[in-house]
What does this fold into?
Amino acid sequence: MGTTTVDLASNFAALGLGDAWKWDKGSWWLDTGEDFDVRESAARLIALGARFVAITAMERDDNEIRLDYQWDLNGNLLSFITVTHERKMATILDLCPAVDWVERETYEYFAVDFTGRATLMPLMTRVGDEPGINLRKEAVQ
Amino acid sequence: MSFRIPIGPYHPALEEPYKLDLTCVGETVSDASMTVGFNFRGIEYLAERRNYMQGITLVERVCGICSNVHSLSFCQSVEQLSSLEVPERALYIRVILAELERLHSHFLWAGIAAKLIGFKTVFMACFTMREKVMDALSAISGNRVNYGMNRIGGVNRDITDPAAVLAILDSLENGIRNTINPIFIDDASVASRCKGVGVLTREYAQAMGAVGPLARASGVAQDIRKAAPYAVYSRFQFDVPVEEAGDVRARLIVHALEMIESCKILRQALSTMPEGPIHTPTPTAARMKVPAGTAVSRVEAPRGEVLYQITSDGTDVPKRVRVRTPTFMNMATVRFTVLGQELADSPLIQASCDPCYSCTDR
It folds into this structure.
């Protein structure tokens, strides 16, 4: 997997996150820690011209959900590893309209409540369906 | 006085289920809302309950048109996790399959667009050419769709007669240059029908995270084959067509020119494909275990960037399989591109973003 040559170091500095980035298996990764502000980072990424790509959610052993916020900056995939608090995360919808369907889908799959947005209307399921499809524990085949 | 016009989920123009509720004042669309999910199959959930070998077959069923990019992206992620080096010949074959798939997808799109524009003879021409691509794919893989070509560490079948594919390519390129492109790019009737219709501005395309030909028709010059090359794309000369207008006509032009670029890539790949094995001698046992970790793979599908993120816990079943498809990002733009447009143009506007609901819903 190749990436285009851009001055990532200065971009990382502009994101205020220094040298903590690590390239591994298809993405630049940043384990953000507890004080990370997902909204501030989204605002900075948008100002740099980054394109929102995805939120990848994954269940953790402590009943919280890991959320990887993924952005493309000049062909480089940047993944911010964050963790919900009591299954909640601040929305970035008002900053980035592209996230609308992704947050709704993440709610349906992992029951993550994105706070600060008016509704989390179902996208794939229907009104009244229980959220958290991917948290079900049926046996593996 | 306004009227609410529900369209779908059994759609009169596009043969996939989704629902678009349009509010019109006279003939002008003043509001729109969209409902998807009618094809929801829980593919991500299912993929986390099957082993990696079963996963390849499963993800290839995300979509019937761009099935190859799903198994390709899945396999690339697993290969990264397993530190597998795929043989060169297999990488060339992956590129050839991907570009043939792009061609047949673009021919399908071009045919539907022509039909909605009112150019039904072009619809027939596009589908005739698409059949030739399907024949080539069938000759290579044994299947017209869901080719079953990708495996972890390479591909399942060799291309034993590249000259035969090159001969088909000659015929296709002739058809694209002499039949499709003059109509899509130069014809005055098509231009007047499509110019200024369903505009997606560059700013909005970026804000909505649009990808692929839709974004490139709005001036967003990104193609994963160039920006983050995979397989052996970095070895080939090709251009990324970009238009600035953001309207239906710009989408026609981008798709038409992209077909020529696919032909360029195919010629280079078929002519320079090295000899050698087509897969690694890795275990093909259904219960192969994958080292723990997380890997991401992005592929430029016919409709734009596909992302697969796979997390392994060291067992033979992935802990997490994330699938983000291009139409998932692109389709949400339709709610905005139909605003202020004529009701009669809304099917063309919807079709012009090349939607795939099977991909969107997964």
Summary: Chain B has one domain: 42-332+344-351. The mean pLDDT of chain B is 91. Chain B has 15 helices and eight strands.
